[in-house]
Amino acid sequence: MNNQVQQIGQASLTVTPGQWYTVRIEVVAGLTRVFVNDVLKLATTVDAGPYGPNPGGGEGQIGLVTCSATAEYDDLLAYQP
Asked: What is the DSSP secondary-structure string of 58-72?
């Protein structure tokens, strides 16, 4: 938010190099849930920032980051239903 990274939760996940994982992040009515391969790994009510159609009158950005690791991302899709 405001060009700053905002950590809203933390969870550990053991991964296998070379293995692809499907990650889904949902933010609905103040609840953020993170699924890996359709298994819930994190749920939090910490404020994930503005939401709704055109919050604040501007365009937002999303991003995926890692900590102490590298990752390759493919087929990122973000939308607001």
From this structure: S--------SSS---
